[in-house]
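**Archive record**
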Amino acid sequence: MTLPNQEVMNLLRERFVLAHRNIERELHVGISHGYACDQTAVGTTNGAGGRNVQLLVLAPDETVLHALPGFWHAEDLLPELRLALDLHRLHGEDRISQPQRQALFVQMHRAHMARYGEAAARRGAWQGFDQNHESMRAASEVRDTVDSRVGGEVKLKPIPQLVHERLLARPFLHLREFGMEAFVDYGRPFYDNNWGDKGREFLRAERANEKRAREQERERALAAKAAAKAKKAPRTGAGKATS
């Protein structure tokens, strides 16, 4: 999730119960290669490699309190983890109604973004290959990744903003209902700077990506067919009045 940072490690050790799971078999995982232990780790931008790794903060009942895809700088990860702790307290508050709880969920995310969003966004610029891939997708389909379109040019939202907007659409969902595939669907379904170096190939991930690509192609074909059928369908109207 980030490069080693003592403050992050202390917070995780003191306030969280840590666990991990291999996501290589999951459909949302990106194609990648394994890295050797002696390879040099480098920082990148917030949210980069979102398909390869995700940090989830769960309540004991597996309600998703927070989700962060990809790499995050330590100075941005810390406030996100503290937000998760605040959301955990809210989730466990049984003296308020569900509508009130969801309204507070929205308020807390927006207040968080107002306080930390600008700095996180500066470190959340898109990787070039992700930006190109996402811009091409946005040219042919509706994407929530788009901030604006000016003269045919697509401007993408900073990834931290996109992440929080997608979280706002998933208030206190159980893990099985969260929809990780859609949550991490931005940029290329591949993130790997290890090509050419020695590393283990994740063949299951490659097959999962191929399966996902086939499914998405079928969905696009069905949508195009439905749109063409709707376009050809005769329009119905009130008709002419007769006396």
